[in-house]
Design brief:
By secondary structure, the chain is α/β, with parallel strands linked by helices. The protein contains 11 helices and 15 strands. The model has no long low-confidence stretch (mean pLDDT 97). The structure holds nicotinamide-adenine-dinucleotide (NAD).
Length: 386
């Protein structure tokens, strides 16, 4: 039984040129169990407040520092329960750490930070403060990706031998940043994006498939980060061969110069008893191959009995009614909400084990190792501990 809607604060995500604030707002509001109460939506204080007014967010602040301080000073029954951080990568660490210190939950965009050092510091703060924390690896919110995890963890395809994970895009195949296109401009700037452009932006999603679905992690990598578009300071193509724990291997590839690709990320998990395959191009289907048997297709639908109890609360519609990207984001918000509600002493469904602070930090360790390997012509490089 829920006593009230959760109150959410948004950091970043304002203004007409912004991309990812709107999908998060839809995700937050999807189940009518949370509301946007506060916002510090842009880097310019006046624009930040104006943006809050335009979006009917009652408490608009000029910047994230005053928002977190202001909210923390409110009585417990009025302040925000969590923040959604949807700023460029260089403005994740500051607000996430401040929110954690103030006792406010955090849903933070990926990549977690711009450096592994920051990620470690944030992780320490989150652990010390027992902060409810989700790292926004959106694709882990797709029910069929969650099902793949449950099948692998249940031993359905045996011991994992190999993972192939991919994420191609084509939007940076030309020098879009030269036209000051907002999303491109900071993504190719090392001071704002971090040590890897393509890897940090989308290679990290592909690596998260390895972590989330199989529970294995890269121990060492051989990486080739390429910059195809001249004048660009960061990679726009990312190819990694990884040794995984328990003797498995992985190929993790991402690209921003694959003309025609439409965010068509996915994975193939190859085990001793079978293979699982998922692609966002057919996101309501999970394929299961077993030697000598016909291909098995799991399809998405709230009425299907083969979804375990851990996933059922995340399905909203009967089969044939597509639930996709926004619902996946909504599912990550749902996990954080249920974690917070349990802390409030309310009865809420058990949250799924969506990526938390460890997954965010592990993503940064992977990126750091890939950058170091590529700088040494693909030499095998150990993935540092988080
Ligand atoms: N999980 C996913 O699937 C996914 C998809 C897209 C983007 N992202 C991530 O979301 C983040 C934002 O990406 P985007 O494409 O929306 O970028 P964007 O450039 O479109 O928007 C960034 C927003 O942050 C605001 N901003 C910048 N600095 C700020 C500050 N200090 N305080 C408050 N607001 C500030 C800007 O005004 C803008 O509204 C990035 O970390 C990106 O990696 C994740």
């Amino acid at each position: 039984m829920s006593a009230r809607k959760l109150r959410v604060g948004m950091i970043g995500g304002g203004g007409p040129a912004n991309f990812f604030g709107a999908p998060h707002r839809r995700g937050i509001l999807m189940d009518n169990s949370a509301e946007l109460t506060a916002g510090a939506l842009r880097s310019n204080p006046e624009e930040s407040k104006a943006s809050a007014r335009e979006l009917f967010i009652p408490r608009g602040y000029g910047d994230w520092r005053s928002m977190i301080a202001g909210e923390a000073a409110l009585p417990a029954g009025e302040r925000i329960d969590y923040v959604t951080i949807v700023t460029p990568n260089d403005a994740h660490f500051g607000p996430a750490e401040a929110a954690a210190r103030a006792g406010i939950g955090v849903l933070c965009e990926k990549p977690l930070t711009t450096t592994l050092e920051e990620a470690r510091a944030l992780r320490a703060t989150v652990i010390a403060n027992k902060t409810p924390f989700v790292t926004a690896y959106t694709y882990t919110g797709f029910p069929m990706v969650m099902l793949a995890r449950e099948l692998v963890r249940g031993g359905d395809i045996g011991a994992i031998r190999k993972v192939e994970a991919w994420y191609p895009q084509g939007w940076l195949a030309t020098r879009l940043e030269a036209d000051n296109q907002k999303q491109a401009a900071w993504r190719v700037d090392p001071s704002r994006a971090g040590g890897s452009g393509c890897g940090g932006d989308i290679g990290t999603h592909a690596y998260e498939f390895v972590l989330f679905v199989t529970g294995l992690a890269a121990t060492k990598v051989s990486a080739r980060l390429k910059t195809f578009v001249s004048g660009r300071a960061l990679d726009d193509d990312f190819t990694v061969l990884a040794e995984l724990t328990e003797g498995a291997i992985a190929t993790i590839t991402a690209s921003q110069v694959t003309i025609g690709a439409q965010n068509d990320n996915g994975f193939r998990i190859i085990g001793t008893k079978g293979t699982l395959e998922w692609s966002i191009t057919d996101h309501q289907t999970l394929k299961r191959f077993t030697g000598g048997q016909p291909l098995m297709l799991y399809r998405q639908g709230a009425e299907y009995g083969y979804f375990p109890g851990s996933i059922k609360p995340y399905l909203r519609l009967p089969s044939g009614h597509p639930e996709g990207f926004h619902e996946a984001l909504g599912n990550l918000h749902r996990t954080l909400e249920w974690t917070i509600r349990a802390r409030m002493g309310e009865t809420a469904p058990a949250p799924f084990e969506h990526p938390g602070i460890d997954a965010g930090a592990a993503g940064m360790a992977f990126i750091e190792a890939a950058v170091a390997s590529s700088a040494r012509e693909g030499a095998w490089t150990a993935v540092p501990a988080i």
